[in-house]
Amino acid sequence: MMQTDRAYLLEQLKIHFGFSQFKGNQEAVIRNVMSGKDTFVLMPTGGGKSLCYQFPALLMEGTAIVISPLIALMKNQVDAMRAFSMEDGVAHFLNSSLNKAAVNKVKEDVLSGKTKLLYFAPESLTKEDNVAFLQKIKVSFYAIDEAHCISEWGHDFRPEYRRIRPIINDIGKAPLIALTATATPKVQLDIQKNLGMADAEVFKSSFNRPNLYYEIRSKNNATKEIIRYIKQNEGKSGIIYCLSRKKVEELADLLKVNDIKALAYHAGMDAATRASNQDRFIHEDVDVIVATIAFGMGIDKPDVRYVIHYDIPKSLEGYYQETGRAGRDGGEGHCLTFYSYKDIQKLEKFMQGKPIAEQEIGKLLLMETVAYAESSICRRKSLLHYFGEEYAPDNCGSCDNCTHPKVQFEGKEYMSLLLETLEAIGDKFKTDYLISILTGKVNALNKSYKHNKIELFGAGAEKDAKFWNAVLRQALILGFVDKNIENYGLLFISPKGAEYLEHPYSILLTQDHEYEQADEEDSAAMPTGKSGVADEELFSMLKDLRKKVAKRNNLPPFVVFQDPSLEDMSVQYPVTLEEMQNIAGVGAGKARKFGKDFVDLIRRYVEEKEIVRPQDMVVKSVINKSTNKVFIIQSIDRKMDFEDIAGAKNQTIDELLTEIEAIVHSGTKLNIDYMIQEVIDEDKVEDIYEYFREEAETDSIDEAQRELGSDYTEEEIRMVRIKFMSEQGN
C-alpha cells in the first residue's frame, strides 16, 4: 500500500519541490490521484496545477503520461522537473522536434524505469509506434493538461484532443487526471463526457483573482491612451494583446518610437526571434510585449502588472486566461480592454466560411463577451457567474463598474414582465427570440410558433432591445434565469425565478454602457469636418501669424498651413519642431520651412498662460513607412505615368491624386511637371497656377472650378494645385 499520510507527503514535497505547504486544493487532488481514482481539476492560472500531477508521478510506480498541447510548454516543464531532480531522465518528452538518437535515448530511460513523467502532444500520441511502445510499460496514470482544448466550446479547441480517449483505451487502462484553468459548466460537461470520466472527483478552486482590477474603455484614440497609460506606469511589465499580426507590428513600432521598451510576438515570426523576444521580456530587458494570443501559454512571469487588450477577445475564456497573466504574485494587476462593437462585427466576419455549427458556437461565445463588455454590473460578478461560480458582494471595489457605478432604477415591473414572457413561450428559445417577443418585432420564427399572437407580444415595446438585454443579463446574474447546458443558449426560468414570479419584490437594475463607436485614429490623417478647436484664443493668434508668414513669403495663407493643422496646434500646443511634425498635415518639410515662428508663438503663449500641455503631445507617430507612399514618391521620381502607378496599386486616378496631395501637404516636394505637360494644355496650367497664387482665398477645388469655368476639369485643377503647393509651400 502506498504511503499517503500527511507527514510523509509534506516531507516528499520539501525534498522534491522545496515547498513546505500545499496550496489550495493540491493535497486533496494528489491524494485522489494516488488512490487510483479519476480526477478533474479546475484551477485558475497560477494556482499550481502542474504540481497536481508532477508530485504523484514521482511517488507512484510506473510512468505518468502527460498530454499537453504546446511543445514550448512541455520543454519548460521537463527542464523544471530535471532542475528539481538529481536524475536527468526523470522527465522526457516525445515529439516531432526530436531526432532518432534522441528518441531512442528517451525510450531507453523509460524502459529502465528512470522516467516518471513522459510528455506527449496529442498528435504524437496517435502514432502507431508510440502506442506500441507505451503498451510495453506500466502507466501510473494519464494527465490531460489544458483539457479545455477538448471542447468546441472552449477558447482553444483542438480536434485531435477528442481522439485521446480511444488511444488511451488502446494503450491500457489507468486513472485519468484532467486539468484546466478555464472551463464553464458547459465545457466541463463536454470534457468529462469525451474522456469518459463522468464519475471523476471534481476539484474546483475559486476563479476569483481579488488583486486584479478589470476595466473596459471605449476604443477611442486607443493607441494614444495606451501610450499615456504605459508612460504613467513606467518600469512595470505589461502585455498588450492584438488580434492581427499586422497590428502587433504597428503598435510595437509606435511604442518604440515613443521611447517605450517594447517587442512584438506572433506566430508569423521565426521561432528564434519569438523565443528571444519572450526571453527578453521574462528577463526584463524590455517592459512591454505586444502579442497575438500565440503568446502566453506557460509564460510564468509573476510580476506582469498590466494586460491590455487592444482588441477584445473572441470569448470570455480567452479574456479570463489572458487577463490572468497579470499579477500572478498576488500584487497589483490592471486588466484594461478597449471595446468597440465594430470589432465584434469583424470577428463575426472572420467566422464566415467555417462550418455552420462552429459559426453558431462562435457567435454565442462572442455574445457572452458583448454582454460582459456592455453590462454595468460588477465585472467580477459577471465573470465568475460565467464560470459557474457565485460572487456574493454587490460591489467588488476593484472594477470600473464598481468604482464608477451607474445610476440604478426600480426594476420590479421589468423583471416580472421578462419572466412572465419567458414562462409564456417556454424553454426552447435563445436571447434574441425572447427579446423579439418583448419588443413586439414580428419575424418568421415567432410567426411560425404563433407567439406573435400571444397577449404578452410587444408588452415591453416602450423599451428597446438594448434595455431588455440589460434586464436579462441581470436576471441571469441573479439566478432567476439559466441557460441549458446541453443545448447551450436556450433560456429557462430557475426555481429562484419561479419564486420571484410568485412573490415579486423591489429590485434595483442598471442600464448598460453606451460606448461611442468611433474609428481608431489615424495619426497621418488630416482632421476633417467639424472644427476641433480647443483654444479659440490661440487659434485666432495662429491665423494672424499665418497671414503674416504668408505675406512675407508672398503666398496665400492656405499654402503655409491649412486650417485643420492650426486647429490641431490649438489642441496639442507643440513647442518644438519635432513636436510640430506630429501635427495633422505637417510633415518634416513643412515643419522646417514654416514651423519656427509658430512653435515660438505657442511656447510664449503656453508659458504666459501657465498651460499644462496634454500628455498626448508625447505620442509620436511612426514615420509613415506606408509602402504605398514610398512607391508613389519613387515612381514619380522615375517619371512613371499616373495610370501605371495607380494600376500597380489597384487604385483609381482619383485615389492616387488624394495620396499625392497628402504627401505634398505634409511637406514633401514632388515634381509632377512631366505628367502635367503630357495631359494639360500649357495656357491652362498657367491660368490655374495664377489663380492659386493671386486670387484664391482657400484651396477649394469647387471654388477654383467656379472661378475658372467649365473648360477646366477637376483633375486638371488638382494636378496644377499639387504643383503649386509643392513649389510654393515646401
Structure, described:
It is a single chain. This protein has 730 residues and is an alpha/beta fold. The chain folds into five domains: 6-204, 3-Layer(aba) Sandwich (Rossmann fold); 212-403, P-loop containing nucleotide triphosphate hydrolases (Rossmann fold, 3-Layer(aba) Sandwich); 412-505, Orthogonal Bundle (Arc Repressor Mutant, subunit A), CATH 1.10.10.10; 536-618, HRDC domain (DNA polymerase, domain 1); 627-729, ATP-dependent DNA helicase RecQ (Arc Repressor Mutant, subunit A, Orthogonal Bundle). It contains 34 helices and 17 strands. The strands form four sheets. A seven-stranded parallel sheet has the order 3-4-2-5-6-1-7, sandwiched between helices. Strand 10 (262-265), helix 12 (271-282) and strand 11 (288-291) form a beta-alpha-beta unit.
